[in-house]
Amino acid sequence: MSNILEVKDLVVSFHTFGGEVQAVRGVNFSVPKGKTVAIVGESGCGKSVTAKSIMQLLPKPPAEYKQGEILFNGDNILAKSERDMQRIRGNEIGMIFQDPMTSLNPTTKVGAQITEGILKHKDVSRKEARSQAIELLNLVGIPQPEKRVDQYPHEFSGGMRQRAMIAISLACEPDLLIADEPTTALDVTIQAQILKLMKDLQNKTGTSIILITHDLGVVAETCDHVVVMYAGQVIETGTVEEVFETPQHPYTKGLMKSVPRLDQDKKQPLIPIIGSPPDLMDPTEGCPFFARCEYAMEVCRDHNPSFEYMGGNQHASCWLHHPLAKASE
Amino acid sequence: MGSKENTYEAVVTKEGREPLLQVKGLTKYFKVNKQHLKAVENVSLDIYEGETVGLVGESGCGKSTAGRTIIRLHKPTAGDVYFNGEDINQYSGKKLKQLRREIQMIFQDPYASLNPRMTVEDIIGEALDIHGLARGKKRKERILELLDLVGLDAEHISRFPHEFSGGQRQRIGIARALAVEPKFIVCDEPISALDVSIQAQVVNLLQKLQKQMGLTYLFIAHDLSMVKYISDRILVMYLGNMMELASSDELHENPLHPYTQALLSAVPVPDPKLKDRERIVVSGDVPSPLNPPSGCVFRTRCPHAMDICAKQVPEWKEVRENHFTACHLYE
Questions:
Q1: Which of A201, A253, B144, B320 is 20 to 30 A removed from A127 (C-alpha atoms)?
Q2: Where is the ABC transporter domain (chain B) (predicted)?
Q3: Number of folded domains in chain B?
């Protein structure tokens, strides 16, 4: 199985007035061709920074890529010039942003926003680009696309704007689509529509998708692989089945227990993860989850565990899996 | 949870008791450019002491407006609200202030609902000052007691809101609501701005407080699995109208209204084994409340829509025991 994207040992920092924020601290993961990979984690865990690094959308300064490489089809994106990146953005890698209310240009017609990418990357006339835009709007399920193409974003509802965003990101048939919380701002019935649409489009075009989310339900329903991030690090990866059925890291286990299931017994209190994530301005040397972990040991305080193979497709970084550790459960 | 703490649940199941709060035909229109925005339309609900009623629906369905109108933050266009048997719409001045001691609210966004220029002591103390509940040394004692109750440290008392995380801020908001010892609290999406691992902390806190103090909650949310977990009964709203009301288990096992069925089916389940289950995906968007559809408001998206749905507003009726819905399918 070949990978369309490989992120290797990525370290990204932001230089701020208050000091250096180590937002991403050694992230490793890969995206197999034609698959959907979820990046899950709480706010501030570095999932959006990782995504924007792939697109090279972080302003430098304050951002700085300190280490690592991002291989897209074997080429290191971090070594590319801005000119080369412009050829890749929107063309080979597409992106869907979280908030459809703010990520569309309010003063430009939706059609023009879709054709912008097509005209830039492909050798087509304006007329052809327009008919492609209408076709795309039709593809993402917007009724009356001939009329809608000449409307402004404010004339669209939230769900329709997100559909328009998807149309823009798909305009040049990218090999990789990065969706940064594409449904967080939407209602559940609209969310179901959008997720179904993304799945259908993937079946049609074979695009690989990176889906960034904090909703475990969305992950379980739409993704093949999961990358769990915490405090700027990847703490567990694996297929959806592995990570949901046999989570190996205490943080992943905690996440699974803290969401109520529909079959949850109401007499049982939820099991929250105590405390809150560490400050990335001054992260500890040891395991980032140490302060909140119920299984924390002496070694966790000062030494960060390495990322170990757990069998199948699963990897996790936790000292509990060290041969010298006592069995956890 | 031990059996001793369950005393208030016993109250909930007792038959023939007087409701703490009675809402009758509550309607709230807003005037927008000479048109009426029908935010809440004819909502009736009884809430009993010690229970938690969940209020769910999509954004713009009027659930927050309903919550705010019930506690007189908005003046209703029509309808009555009785608290302890008294019509609170007739209240003004002193009586209204007194009512505010009985009814409190926890707001959605912990970043916007705390004054950034006030310390925690002043935020919580303000409620004590307004109602003249504690002064001087006693005031500080009471504030420390409240901080302890919601799981914050005594040293937090002199800090400002920006020094806290989202979950901690929500705890401050809860302490502020509890300061006046209310009986009834409207929780307007208290956890939707928080991270998953923090949500469970706040929900557990709300449940602990309910058991300790016998609080009654109206829990407004759009997260159905959390609402099911915390609520005794759930009211589903759509476009300002009541769609369905039942106990939370009954609603999840036998959803009657097509909208409830679609809403439940749309919730993503964190279990990959259920990935390929049959799902009802309703098409289209919520219509504008400025110009809602005639008859049943859900008919434009309903997979079972019939001719009668456009002509006649379905009647609110008890289809199963203690299970109400408004749908022509059940007539």
A1: A201
A2: 21-264
A3: 1
CATH number of the domain within which B245 lies: 3.40.50.300
Q: How many CB atoms are closer than 10 A to CB B161?
A: 21
Contacts of B1 in chain A (CB under 8 A): 267, 269
CA nearest neighbour of B101 among B111, B91, B109, B116: B91
Measure the CA–CA gap between A294 and A328, rounded to whole angstroms.
10
Interface residue A254 vs chain B (CB under 8 A): yes
Q: How far is it, in rounded angstroms, from Cα B19 to Cα B8? A: 14
B237 vs B62: CA distance, rounded Å: 7
- Report residue B13's pLDDT band, with 50, 70 and 90 as the boundaries: very low
Report ipTM for this prediction. 0.73
Of B198, B229, B279, the CB nearest to A260: B229
Do residues B232 and B11 lie in contact, with contact meaning Cβ atoms separated by under 8 Å? Answer: no
Domain span holding position B247: 3-330
Q: Does A256 touch chain B (CB under 8 A)?
A: yes
Strand partners, A69: A8
- How many whole angstroms separate alpha carbon B129 and alpha carbon B255? 47
Phi–psi pair at B93, nearest 5 degrees = 55, -125
CATH number at residue A186: 3.40.50.300
| Residues in chain B closer than 8 A to A267 (CB atoms) | 1
Sheet with B184-188: list strands edge to edge.
B103-106, B184-188, B216-221, B52-56, B233-238, B241-247, B323-326, B316-320
Please write the tens of the pLDDT for every residue from A218-270. 898 889 999 999 988 899 999 998 888 888 889 988 888 887 776 667 667 77
Which 3 state secondary structure label does DSSP give A213? strand
State the number of CA atoms in the 13 A half-sphere of B7 facing the CB.
7
